[in-house]
Amino acid sequence: MKNLLYIFGIVFLFASCNNESIPKPRGYFRISFPEKTYSDISKDLPFSFEIADYSITEIDSGAHNGSAWVNIITPTNKADLHITYIELKNDLANHIEDSRELAYDHSIKADAIEEQLFLNNEEKVFGTLYSIEGNAASPLQFYLTDSVKHFLRGALYIREIPNIDSIRPVIDFLQPDIIHIIETTTWTD
User: Using one digit for the tens of pLDDT, what is the confidence trace for 40-57?
Assistant: First the structure.
């Protein structure tokens, strides 16, 4: 009887070991979404807009010659919105084309690029939002202008490997914030 249990134990041990084990999937960073509330940025800039209260505004020290750089950082989601302001000098077409090219440079990795126009005649703010679908480094980009003096360009970057399956919730959470920035932009001169 003891030998029979011993043989049964060995057979059970070999039968239970196979090569079809499934490895544990790689984990992704934890995503938490705070409540959306907005405040006006209170900086001495030629433009103004509202940003989410959970974001941090940093003015880049390299601002000069009618241009300014602003970074809006959302630390909990590892996201940065880089904003560049340029004072126009009869070169609007060049800046619009540069913005379009920068957005479409992501077409190598993008599944699709959608353009959404924004027109605010009352505040004289006009622009385009580029939504870049797929594993692109910058999933949302935009530009705004008054067509005469002001030009503002923004690009969102997520500080993670661009795996769309893992960062899609962050992009979906931040897209309304970027649209809110676009819709609340005014020129302050």
Answer: 986 788 999 999 999 999
